[in-house]
Amino acid sequence: MTIKSVAHKLIDKVISSGRMDLIADFASPFPAIVTATMLGVPVEDHRQLGAWVIDLAEVLGNFQHHPDRMSQIVQSLRDFKKYVSARIEEERRKPTNGLIYALMTSQVDGHYLTDEEIIVNTIITLIGGHETTTNLIASGFLTLLRNPESFEQLRGHPEIVASAVEELLRFESPVQHTARIAPADSQLGGKTISKGSRVVVGLAAANRDPNRFRDPDRLDLLRSDNRHLAFGWGTHFCFGAPVARMEGQIAFSALLRRLSRPALLEPKVRWRDNAGLRGLSALNISFDPGLPYPESGDSIDGT
Ligand code: HEM
Predict the structure, then answer these.
(1) Which pLDDT band, with edges at 50, 70 and 90, does 146 fall under?
(2) Were both Cys, which of 68, 143, 151, 204 would link to 176 (CB 3.0–4.6 Å)?
(3) Would the CB of 129 count as within 6 Å of ligand 1?
């Protein structure tokens, strides 16, 4: 199975119907299948993993709390931990070449990671690898639909897809903010930030900073000097950025090739109630079949 074949198989399933929910039918399962495969867990578990990820993303990305959802979210975390624990046992019995096994067998300064460390790293990779990439693809596709000239530009020149993905990451950032605790007193923008202060960094705002990006509210798929902050910066820079970029490029190339004349089925789109991880709850579109995928013979399970 290749990442490309995952994308095309998902499109194969809806191509004859002429309509799809781009999130449920493509943007959500696509990274879920890729991440499950990368970790070495059964691909058919991707729907359950996706449901846990959505629950946990609600806490991670949100300042506005949902006390009524808390018990469900805590239960999801418990179930998720139990699942990864069982996978570790399974890897001990029958190792795969996935990332969980790599975490189990790697050493840091001569020490192996504890099961707890393997569990939290697996969970953060699943959360990081799923929700954000779903939102890059779906919000990016909506952005292209709202900017038909850019849509046609990318369709006519698929070779610019890498630059297009960078601009879509800047323009409609899947991770809107992150947070830090100031390690020392410091000055920023004429303000003093005291040691120990909790600081929220608006990555999406920085990505539209007119002092950094010329004409920042304009989508320019060929923008040069596009060093955006969509994957963060410094020590905690996104560990999965190369995979996310590859998935984004494959997804947009596949969607623009296979779907002709895509259009929104509902004029008003619904955004999820999550201030940090910005994404749509659904994206219903119609389309005509476009060009075929000549190598769609591979099979993938669990979709
Ligand atoms: C479009 C997709 C993605 C976006 C926009 C994104 C964004 C980010 C951002 C902004 C951070 C830094 C958070 C901070 O500094 O506080 C981060 C960290 C992280 N990301 Fe991603 N990410 C994406 C995809 C992925 C993928 C595919 C994976 C894994 C397969 C992943 C795994 C992680 C992990 C493990 C971290 C924590 C790194 C650390 O703390 O050292 N991400 N991501």
Answers:
(1) very high
(2) 204
(3) yes
Domain assignment present for 253? yes
Q: Is 236 in the pocket of ligand 1 (CB under 6 A)?
A: yes
- CATH code for the domain in which residue 270 is found: 1.10.630.10
What secondary structure does DSSP assign to 221-269, as a single string?
A: TT-SS----TT--GGG--TTHHHHHHHHHHHHHHHHHHEEEEEESSSS-
pLDDT for the residue 150: 98
Residue 230 lies in a domain: no
Instruction: Tokens 């390690």: give the residue.
Output: 183
Range of the domain at 48: 3-174+238-288
**Gap between the Cα atoms of 244 and 238, Å rounded:** 9
Q: Which of 132, 171, 201 to mutate to test the pocket of ligand 1 (most atoms within 8 A of CB)?
A: 132
- pTM over the 0.85 mark: yes
Q: Ligand 1 atom 27: the closest Cα is on which residue?
A: 129
Tell me the average pLDDT across 61-76: 81
Nearest atom of ligand 1 to the alpha carbon of 173: 5
What is the domain count for the chain? 1
